[in-house]
Amino acid sequence: MKRYFFNKFKSTFRSIHLWIFVILIALLFSSFFLAPQLFKSNIAYTKGIGVKNDSINFIKKIFKPEIEPLDTVRYDELVNVLANNPPPKPPVTKIIKDPKTGVETTVVVEPKPAPPNIWPVKTVYPNPGAILPFKRIVAYYGNLYSKKMGALGEYPEDEMLTRLGAEVKNWELADPATPVVPALHYIAVVAQGSPGADGKYRARMPESEIDKVIAMAERIGAIVFLDLQVGFSTLEKEIPVFEKYFKMPQVHLGIDPEFSMKGGIRPGKVVGTYDAADINFAAEYLAKIVRENNLPPKILVVHRYTQNMMTNYKEIKPLPEVQVVIHMDGWGVAPKKLNTYQQFVYKEPVQFTGFKLFYKNDTLNEGTVIMTPRELLKLNPRPIYIQYQ
Can you tell me the distance from the alpha carbon of 115 to that of 107, in angstroms, rounded to the nearest whole number? Predict the structure, then answer.
């Protein structure tokens, strides 16, 4: 009798398990069709995030949200805000007195037609996920091996990130309508006065240093720019060296014509130059990486503070995959900087603009202070990339 009840219970228990299994399969099947968005997150796994005494270490799951389509209406609205064109002059009312009769007549005098605005520039729309013009970038520039090349390497890591955070806050207060993205702009190829082993007058930074900068940026949710001072080398030779970094969605490119030496004179003796063909090569290289790796658009920053640093600007071609920033890189008192911006950035429009502020070189003259966000927001066009050195 006991055996009979035991077998009966065992059979019933198996039936219950079978029904539970069937119900779970049915729920999973129906949820796949009724709520497919639950299954759309891409999952990446990162090894080596420390768990002590664990040979496998911790595996971190990163869910990548889908990128929303580009809002072209909002894009157009924002680039017009950045252009900051002066409003048209209103008509002027005048009273004219007839010299013979003495009769006074009120007339409306229309202003002279204003020259057409050259900003904003009409270029291609970027791919979805573009940072500009939806957010402003505020960056610290420098190299970890030098305290003299910029704020990025001048201060200990925690202090540097705190100082950058303060500048980000200043910009958020000055322009609350524009969110701010912090950035670390790292000189990954440094021009130098000695030829080096290959005679190119430039030194590539080791990957260990670039990895440090990327880790610093991750702490504050910042993006990273790798800046190239090619010396007697070329962009064609230098950009591919760092391709694995440009495949990362948060890493962008800066190129510095000042140290692109095409005339045979070593860096630091004369100001170098890039042509539109050089800039287009850099943009097309980045665009290929974007397409092949399904990335959001990259940003290409081009330094400039003289006429000859960038030639044939009309031939520069912004691409859906790459947003081009012409960055005013001159230092000195405010009137000098503003004139540089007017002559070499405003008058030769490409796509977006940047403005560099030097903590030391902009304040060498007694009584001078660094320009403020509110002052820069008055510019035509407003810079969307701000760099502190």
Answer: 24
